[in-house]
Amino acid sequence: MDGYGPSAFEGDGEFELIDAVILCGGLGTRLRSVIGEHAKVMAQVNGRPFLDRIMDQLRGQGARRVILCTGYQAQEIEAYYQANPGMAVLFSRETTPLGTGGALQLASGLIASDDFFVFNGDSFCPADLDALLSFHRQKNSLGTLAVSRVDNGADFGAVIFDAAQRILAFHEKSAFAPAGPVFANAGIYCFSKKIFVLTPQREKFSLEYDLFPQLVAQGLYAFVTESSFHDIGTPERIARARGEGNR
């Protein structure tokens, strides 16, 4: 198989190929002092765009087709990833900011597989994607979030789930500041295409604030990964990613 068929992620043979979507349209306003007018996902970390970390992870775990949801500075991202040996890269460009949910919904027509991965383009977690997909299907879940333990929920918020790993609630960082460690959203999701029936009936919306709480009642699960995650949402975090400070 040449890997450029209607689906794109190839695991160890247990699963058919599935697509991977990366959300890349963020404005990165908090990083202007560090990256100027560049797209946030193109911020340089060790001489390469941060987004390369995710692309390398996908390529290394079997991805053959990736959909980049672009927005701000779309031309910069698209020009860099036009040629990507070993993977077909498609682009879904928003002309006005649509939020994470709106961007995914715009790209839905490009997603060929019944299950698919979604990645936040400004965070990286080296989770086992085959294991995530297997867990997602064992639970017959509409949506599965990779979660990783962090020391301070005040920075990232918390995902609350039961012994069966079914998500019960989300405590966002603005409303919940636990003193101890929590499980946080690691920015990797596995979805069934059935979620598009449940998305808000508007162009602009957020996965985190508008869709996930709605899916809780439908069956949303937490896949616990031992891998830590890194994001570049603030100057302090991008400095840590660059090795300029202690994590």
Characterise the protein shown here.
The chain is an alpha/beta fold and 247 residues long. The chain has helices at 32-35, 51-60, 74-81, 99-107, 129-138, 153-156, 207-219, 235-241; strands spanning 19-23, 44-45, 48-49, 65-70, 88-93, 115-120, 123-124, 143-150, 158-161, 167-171, 182-192, 220-224, 230-231. It has one domain (19-241): Spore Coat Polysaccharide Biosynthesis Protein SpsA, Chain A, CATH 3.90.550.
Provide key terms for this protein.
two-stranded antiparallel ribbon; 13 strands; 7-stranded mixed β-sheet; Spore Coat Polysaccharide Biosynthesis Protein SpsA, Chain A
In short:
The chain has helices at about 30-35, 50-60, 75-80, 100-105, 130-140, 155, 205-220, 235-240, and strands at about 20-25, 45, 50, 65-70, 90-95, 115-120, 125, 145-150, 160, 165-170, 180-190, 220-225, 230.
Topology-level CATH name: Spore Coat Polysaccharide Biosynthesis Protein SpsA, Chain A
Q: Can you give the helix content as a percent range? A: 25-40%
Give the CATH level 1 class.
Alpha Beta
Largest sheet: 7 strands, mixed
Q: At CATH's second level, what is the architecture?
A: Alpha-Beta Complex
Distance between the termini: 42 Å
CATH superfamily: Spore Coat Polysaccharide Biosynthesis Protein SpsA, Chain A
C-alpha Rg (nearest Å): 17 Å
In spatial order, strands of the major sheet run 5-4-1-6-11-8-12
Count helical runs. Answer: 8
Instruction: Tell me how many strands there are.
Output: 13
Helix and strand content put the structural class at alpha/beta
Mean pLDDT figure: 84
